[in-house]
Amino acid sequence: MRHLPIILTIISALLFCYALGCFATEDVAPPVLTGFSLSPTVIDTSSGAQTVTATLTITDDLTGFNHGSIALYGPLSSQLVMVGFNATNRTSGTALSGTYTVTLPWPQYSRIGAWAVNSIAVSDGINNTQVYRRTDANAPHAAFGSYSAVHTY
Question: Which of 15, 39, 67, 148 is deepest in the core (most CB within 10 A)?
Answer without folding.
Answer: 148
